[in-house]
Amino acid sequence: MDPLILSLWLIRFAFLALLYLFLFSVVRILLRDLRVAAREPSTQLGRLVVVASPSEEPPVGSVFALDAVTTIGRDVNNSVVVEDQFVSSEHCVLTFRGRAWYVEDLGSTNGTFVNGSPVEGTAPLGFGDELQVGNARMRLERAHR
Amino acid sequence: MTNAAAPARPALPPIVFGGIRPRARWREMWLLLIVALTLYVGSISLGATEAAAAGKSLTLSPAEDQPLAIYLGALLLAHLAQVVAGRRTDQVLLPATAMLGGISLLLMERLPQSLVSQSFGGLDLGLGQVQLLWLLLAIGLITILSIVVRSDSWLRLYKYTWAAAGIGLLVLTFIRGEDVNGARLILVIGPFSGQPIELLKVIMVVFLAGYLSEFRPLLVEQDTRVGPLRLPPLPYLAPMLVMIALALGIVVIQRDLGAALLFFVVFLMLLYVATARAAYVVLGLLLFVAGSYLMYRLFGVVQDRVDIWWDPFKDPSGNGYQIIQALHAFARGGILGTGLGAGLPLVGGQPPIPAVHTDFPFAALGEELGLVGVLAILGLYLVVIERGLRIAAAAADDFRALLAAGLALVVGVQAFIIAAGNLKLIPLTGITLPVISYGGSSILANAVVVGLLLALSDKGVEPPPPPRAGRRFARLRDAVGGRA
């Protein structure tokens, strides 16, 4: 075979091979990322981040991983205990129903607020929304991966 | 591999100035090295083929090494800027985009330079040089966006402003636009001209992400029943109708089928991402079929495109010419391709496909790189989509998740629409192949997309701002709270 044509072929295939080497490297990185993400337990449905808490209990910045039903109040039996004099012992409950979060006020004395507006009965709660019980404010966030 | 050798958690590097901590990016460096090597070999292949065609002896030097060297140098600078800035952004997106841009550069250098000519200050630039200029601007834009954007509130809080700007752009194009191939696509303002539709697609994703994240809890509700379909409260279906109207409006006013299809598909995908309701997609598709049929009956442009697609051989030297040439190009390419520089013989000094640099680069690549190469290029777009969806999955709130998913999908869907059009799988619609096609608006708009995706992937960005109280909650309460 003509060495000229042969070398042209070789260079052509080298280009295609390198293109696939790049894809292969990228896919390896993507798979590794996926495995790292899969190893971390992602059964979390969401997180509650404390934004403001004058009573220092819970402290600002603390993060609660949420179960499908999370109760908030001053009583120690709640999932999230807020030591604030304006919080009722059983203040409100966060529930994950199917695809979205809802907050239900449990007849608290001083009410539950979402983004500054009072909750009557049950209200939907989106990721990024701010929940206020007593003087404490908390933000609902998507679970970390 | 380089990143395996790196310690898993290196000690914090010293603070250089102003609180900036450089952070090594081994994966990006490794991938960019492969990109550089691939493009260099591609350039040698192109140069050798062209030299052989000209009857010269075999030379193993790149075709024109200056543009490639400039391009790779810009990539190195972008990488170094990311390292110095120390952001923990995604490390795969830049190399994947760089590979697409490099392939574009090789292709544009190889096509007849007279397809495009512009002169800047007495300097006459051909197709390849102008494309290089746009690619350099794009790399700059990606770097600046990914480093400077530290908060998304400028997108989040002004979604209606953005939407108004987008519609204004559309109206301006209608009034002042210029026609290309029967479609009103190009807007000229002073010395600048561009295709506003490319910018509009980014604006649309920003608006949809804002709207859907705000009303997601409501859209998930099931209130209305239409036959077997369970739908949300009817008022919240209004944006869907507005989107369909917008898509049809683009067809009617601008005769731009590709953009209309792109907008509608991305809208349906985002709706599904936001709500996980198949009913929306079914309803959207039904409306789409009905709308397309109506358009087919009412508008000659649509009818022409469908007829060409159905049987291009009816008018092989007229309407069906481009698509037939594209099919021939794919056939000539076969599985392994003819090699860079060996395809597309000139017919009378012109390439057989007149719009090869804008609408048909996929056919040109299909000829020269073959099925194998084209699959690799589609793979690169899939990588971009995967990264976007991963960034969306890791996002802190709904707006960012929808924004990242939408940005990635808009690029991916656009690539697949034009690739399918080139292959005669669907009627050909004139949109660009993202990053590969020639054209400033297209390349810069896609650079904005990649830059924003990189910024969103940063784990250290400012947390989402607290939502504002106000009318929104009243609406939510009226629709859901009272009943539950």
Please, could you describe this protein's structure?
The complex is a heterodimer of chains A (145) and B (484). Chain A contains one helix and eleven strands. In chain A, strands 2-1-11-10-7-8 form a six-stranded antiparallel sheet, with no helix packed on it. A five-stranded mixed sheet of chain A has the order 4-3-5-6-9, with no helix packed on it. The longest helix of chain A has 37 residues, at 3-39. Chain A is an alpha+beta fold and 145 residues long. In chain B, the strands form three sheets. In chain B, strands 3-4-5 form a three-stranded antiparallel sheet, covered by helices on one side. Chain B has a two-stranded antiparallel ribbon with strand order 1-2. Chain B has a domain at 153-292. At the A-B interface, helix 1 and strand 9 of A face helix 2, helix 4, helix 8, helix 14 and helix 15 of B.
Summarize the helices and strands and which ones pair or pack.
The complex is a heterodimer of chains A (145) and B (484).
Chain A: H1 3-39, E1 47-52, E2 63-65, E3 69-73, E4 80-81, E5 92-97, E6 100-105, E7 112-114, E8 117-118, E9 122-125, E10 130-133, E11 136-141
Parallel strand pairs in A: 3-4
Antiparallel strand pairs in A: 1-2, 1-11, 3-5, 5-6, 6-9, 7-8, 7-10, 10-11
Chain B: H1 2-5, H2 26-53, H3 65-85, H4 93-110, E1 118-120, E2 123-125, H5 127-148, H6 153-156, H7 159-176, E3 178-180, E4 183-189, E5 192-194, H8 196-220, E6 224-226, E7 229-231, H9 238-254, H10 257-275, H11 278-298, H12 300-310, H13 321-333, H14 361-393, H15 398-422, H16 440-457, H17 471-481
Antiparallel strand pairs in B: 1-2, 3-4, 4-5, 6-7
Helix pairs in contact in B: 2-3, 2-4, 3-4, 3-5, 4-5, 4-14, 5-16, 7-8, 8-10, 8-15, 8-16, 8-17, 9-10, 9-11, 10-11, 10-15, 11-12, 13-14, 14-15, 15-16
